[in-house]
## 1
Amino acid sequence: MNFHYHLLINPAAGSGNASKKANQLIDLFDQHNYTYTPYYTTYAGEEKEIVARLVNLLTPWDEEMLQRSGDEPYHLLIVIGGDGTLHQVVNQFYLTGIELPVSYLPAGSGNDFARGIGLSRQVEEAFKQITAASRPQKINVLLYEEKIKEEYGLVLNNVGIGLDALIVATTNASSSKKWLNKYKLGSASYALYLIKALLTQKTFPIMIEVNGHQQEFNRTFLCTTTNIPYFGGGVPIAPMADPKKEVIDLVIIEKPNIFAIVRLLLQLLRKKHTTNKHYCHFSSSRIRIVSVVPQHGQADGETLGQRSYDLYFSTGSQYIWYADI
């Protein structure tokens, strides 16, 4: 197929790392004589406006595209930024009711989505995966509806209440994140605030409903509904999660004492934490979570605020354009 690539670039992502990666990708497009048009965001949220202008130009996917011929190009959007940028783009697709494939060059701090689906974080390798693909891959996503504030949307990675959300809120507000990103240590910023969050996060009660059965947890420390194995820049919180399966994975950790926390962290580093007695895992196509005590929340690394939640999750899909190489 003949492609016209539309590059949506968030130059601020990764504390400027996205701008550098975008320049490298553009150099590769020039070297191979690919047709492309770049669009740069200049303020938070502008990616939604850019997508709104492009939706009628971008090409939907169907299998008949493989037989298409002629000079008419296939218009494909490539997002260059972090997981938060990609989150905003696919949510704009979802909220406007338009199903469009999207490609991605990860250039943020955590890049958990790319890690989860096997998309390279190196520019040249990602370029090969994008341009070698003849069709997009269907990836599972989480659809959510929050009843208290009547919000709904799509999540590629995970929604967290408690510990991971506190880490996200603290990290995103910190000055050290920019400094660490400068030296390609973005994931370390999560680790820096993990210790603080472990000491400050209080337990809270939640109610979950999975497969028609309700269960209560009174000493919840972390509650993460996830589509991929990772959060926080590569922490394998749910190693059993698979973004190509239509299932939701829910991880709940009840707060142990300080000695058990150390043991849990050591197990986490060795991916042995799923056997810890404080670790609970559930999987289903539909899940409800109620947290009446206000807590920090996050969705794909974007803060949701400190509040109560009544969340309903189901599964959906999003086409991501890349090849397994």
## 2
Amino acid sequence: MSSATPAIAGTTARRPRLFDWRVRFGVLALIWGFSFVFIKVGTEGFAPFQVTFGRLLFGTAVLAVAMVIKRERLPRGRRTWLHLTVAAFLLNALPFSLFSYAELTIPSTLAGICNATTPLWGMLLSLVALSEDRPTRVRAAGLGIGFIGVLTVLGAWQGFSGLDVTGTAMALLASFSYAVGWIYVRRTLAGAGASNLSLAGSQVGLATLQLAVVTPLFTSLPSSVEVVPLLAVIALGALGTGYAMLLQYGVVAEVGPTTASMVTYFIPVIATAAGVALLDEQLAWNTPVGAAIVLAGAALTQRRAPSRHPKTTIRATATATAATPAPSPAPDRLPAGRA
């Protein structure tokens, strides 16, 4: 599949958690890893736009319930809502739709690996768009290594034989859209004055409205509704978009964005295992090898240069936006929704 303001670390006492953050971290990785299987199964009974609309609708429902329970207010200000509308398109409506269309022709395993390229795109864009985030040599090397991994996954030396170019390009474009969205929200929604949950819920809700307009224009109602694809879409939205974001909110609040962002590196592994085990998708040797190279490169791009001012570094780390499977509108905000 992401939003922003006051720092996550609050001044009030934290409530005791029912489950250790490691358990919730593992559940989060499983949900997001299985999302690609849910997309594949969903497209077997519904058009891609319908899968995306259902995903956003059920995700919005979960977040709306959470907002009511926590008595969260909607964001204020026309400017904030305008930026949220753009963020909803870049971080939810567009990438979710692209992944749904991509999985019509490519395996869920490949879609999951393409999703892991988001930190690489973010690093590449930061060279131009974020002057304060200039790369070190290590991070630049990570960018190069990551894209070598992409070429390995795609089997470039074979001329991309047997690969659906259009579907793969859509999956990579979806990941690129996440990276563009991250940069946009970091520049526009910092200090928006609303809570993480309020901004994220509003963002997903706006994306739902966008798909509500687009879907009827390009699709027609299915003649029949199959149970399994419907359940897959419900799970994709309620778990992969709604509940997963709430889980990540708790993990980031408890252990910080840097540790929470490590879930990124488990998603393609789980997506690959799920695709092979549940959908009987086939793997050539270059797919897992290339995926490992992509993840290694992505990890290197997230390394920060050591600061000469330890106190400043600690404070920045507590509020900085890390590369997570779901984008964030500001350095101290949570991402809302990710495939």
## 3
Amino acid sequence: MTPASNTPSEPGSQPRGRASIYDVAAHAGVSAQTVSRVANGQTNVRPTTRDRVLESIQALGYRPNSAARNLKSGKFRSIGFVTFNLATLGNEQTLNAVAEASEKAGYTTTLLPVTDPTKLDVAGAFSRLEEQAVDGIILVMSAEVGSLDELKVTLGLPLVIVDSDAMLPYTIVDTDQEQGAGLAVRHLLDLGHRDIVHVSGPEISFSARRRAETYRTTMAEAGLEARPVLVGDWSAQSALALTRELFADGPPPTAVFAGNDQMALGVIHAIRERGLRVPEDVSVVGFDDAEEAAVSWPALTTVHQNFDQVGRNATSLLLSLIDGAPDTRKKLLIPTHLVVRDSTGPVRSGPAPSA
């Protein structure tokens, strides 16, 4: 057996110390083209020759240089995934869906979280991804960073944005936030509730702003005055503190629409602290349909978001752009649906019990 480090390689083919395709060819007594066919799984090689090449590959520890092959084809078979916050349920599930869809298409996924949602940081992330040789980028743009026109011109790569504002001139995939929030508020109105409070996510968030706007417009369409929106940070702790303050300032509402399920759980905690019952005294609706929504007590009525479909569609659109399809700058909204469980009920007929 000839060690790979002592076998000469063709100049420029591989770094010394790592077996090259020419080392394997010399070891197996075949051409480099035959080694390439075996390494790429092609079938036009005689079984005895294939076995000999595979033995040489194993003996020398040869690894095909996929980067070199990709350079020849003009593609790196990799997409970048940029997100401002991977800790949220939606971003995490969207990333999982993108990674699975990419893998099925023969692509890898490079994750690059951005600490601060600023145009400068996004530009830096794009530059780093360009250095890592990706074919396109999915940007989960859940907060405002300003115009991205100059970034795309500089980058020159296909770009699909997830969770964004309708006015941006890019291919966008998003949950239909307006539809989902409307379903939540109208469900409470249909149950007879007229005093409904909305506990929102942070104002910097596109989805939080859209849900809050829909709460206000839906209440107005019903001829009702909306209460001031309570702005949290998506966490149960923020909603708990806000609801405690709400109860301290006056009588509780008959219903609360929370911007996500975590905040809904914080609201329920505060309601129970007050000595009230859910849904007999106060009904609560969440948003997301997280796993814990179905097993909370009571089981949470919530708006289901299909993050898997968002991720799959974003990946499909990006791969089409990578393959040369024209960028039509379409906006694809994924429908939501209301999951009615035990945390909502008809408005109470009498006053709430005193705390």
